[in-house]
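Figure 2 data, in text form.
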Amino acid sequence: MKQVDIGGLSFAELREEDMYYVDKTMLIADILSEGDRDVYQFTRPRRFGKTTNLSMLDAFFNIQYKGNDWFDGLEISEHPEFERYKNAFPVIYLDLNDTKAPDYDSFIDMMRDAVADAFEPHRYVLECPVIPGRTRKLFDSLDEGITPEGALMTSIKSLSAAIVKSTGRKPVILIDEYDCAVSDYFGEASHMETLEFLGRFFRSALKTNTNREMVYMTGVMQIAKESIFSDLNNVSVDNIFSEHSGERFGFTESEVREILRYYGHPEKLDEVREWYDGYRFGDAEVYNPFSIMMYIRNRFNPGLYWINSGGDGIVKSLLNRIDDANLSTITDLVTGNVARVRLYESLVFKDVYASDESLFSLMAMTGYLNAVPVGDRRFDISIPNREVMGIVRDMAERIRPITDAGFIEFNQAVLDGDAERIASLLEEFLTTTSYLNLSDKIPENPYEMMVVTLLIGLCERYTVRTEREMGYGRSDIVMIPKVRGDLGIVMELKIAKTAKDMDAGVDEALTQIHEMKYYKELSGEVLLIGVCFHSKQAKARSEIIRVRWGPFGIEKYCSTVEKRDQMFDEMGYSIS
């Protein structure tokens, strides 16, 4: 049985060592059908096969691998119209994965290393007698790690010219993770200098370089032209919203079915779907390939594999800066709901921290959200699967300065129906954190946002619905149990103009729950909680009712915990 790769082997290594390989070779056809002189930019989340696909293009185009049989039996071999491109070009392979740096000087040092690695396979050009002295000096300076910034900036253009003089053939240029240097710091003023260097570097390598064939580059983000490619007009972009090559990254369901069948566990599809499905690239529905292979490697045990592969710095940075409106959307998402927002397809450096839309755009680009277009640049966004839900929930719980113990204590107070403890904890959170900028005139929603955020820890046991049509009106919070035997929970929040009005506000909240029948979708024991706020004060009261629906609606309920047992005995109900 073939081994699975989780260590980032190249396409050639996968084929040489007969590892399990999911055929993505028709990406070659997608590209060449568009044009063989263009600049192609493919952006996808990390660990979705970008580097493997890049190495596959290298294996196909690179003249150094002429005569290989790596593509035998794969889909591209059934298309002879592309055979003339196979192993017909010199290839400059520039890997920018290791150029992430804390400051500009360190970045330049890392760029020298990356360019030196790209030059090394082409040392044969030094044997050509017509290679100019400055090119020979460039090789020497890269060997010594002292290449001046100006020469480094135009290095790929210089190498391309030397290759043409030496071989008579223009090289294909492959660039992996073009945005890595700024991906975790995008929008930070301290990295503007890095971005400006990259803009000039890519202009030299891609726009003014007449000695090149096709250029193919990968990245996580689509950085807007005004930020990095301002004067490049020939870039063909394929991002998570593009339909042309959506299924070439990640695994489709048919591919996952075949993987599970091959490894003897076809019955695991539902579990895999729950944990690792839910991504949408263009019109293709795909699974996370890294997590699938980790799942196979770990004997079909699901886990949070993707989060341990790093690369979420900018998402965490944006989450820590969001306002209360965006936090409300985040809490809606982590309770399993869908939100409708506007998204950018590309990000402008100077605007990334200034725009409310940047957070969700970036979360979609980086794989934390599934985004389905609904028109007018609006998308229905949701968290794609259980693995990512755990990751985003963990991030959300750390947005505001409430301790893990505080979350746990509040969740337990809600489950216990301990109204006094609920109110006490809410007051503690409101007075000891900068959770909200409160005034006496604000609507319930900011308080509701806080309460829902605190309930994130119960999402494994409950489906939490906020501001949804329930019964005969729109409820604040309804928690539908996922575990048999758990109580359903309904919470209604009110605002009092003065502290002395808070008791009346609690009564109003509970009365509204009954009048509007917010528990209409629940049955059995249901916990009702009414909460009233005044500035940073809170009061709460709870009831437990027994809901049994007959032909005329609810037949009986109990309004106090103390009388519950007596009433159930009279009705002949068993509390269990």
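Caption note: The two ends are 50 Å apart (CA to CA).
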